[in-house]
Amino acid sequence: MNAVAERLVVKRTFKAPVERVYAAWTDAEQMKRWFAPGAMSVPMAESDAREGGRYRVQMSEGGSDCEFHTTGGAYREVIPNQRLAFTWQWEGSELETLVTLEFKSLSANETELTLIHEGFDNDDTREKHAQGWDGCLAKLDAFLD
Description:
Strand order of the largest sheet: 1-7-6-5-4-3-2
Order of helices and strands: HEHHEEEEEEH
Oligomer: single chain
CATH class: Alpha Beta
Number of domains: 1
Radius of gyration: 15 Å
Shape: globular
CATH superfamily: START domain
Strand content: 35-45%
Distance between the termini: 39 Å
């Protein structure tokens, strides 16, 4: 496996306190408001944000033939307002990857988020997730604004 395919790193700065950014990732009701790229919506989100707890997010493309994309996994590391690590697996897929989020307070109202998503099996899968995360993080930015 080539190292380029394996790992994706995305950094973003949000104009919100670190506690608010962290809560957006761990509170199911907040996740429903942003955790899908583009025009997709989140009809269902579940989150038990503790080590060993599980999460599940269902994304919908809407329309008359409504297509759903569901992902879920287990929380591996939970350090409130600092670090969150969880497995990521699309329903129907064999591939399980790992997402690690690092939250850094830059000021009372500014947070740097580093998202590391690793364990991809090829460049195409990595690139699709890079596009998905870009879309999700744009919606998170609008949600926090």
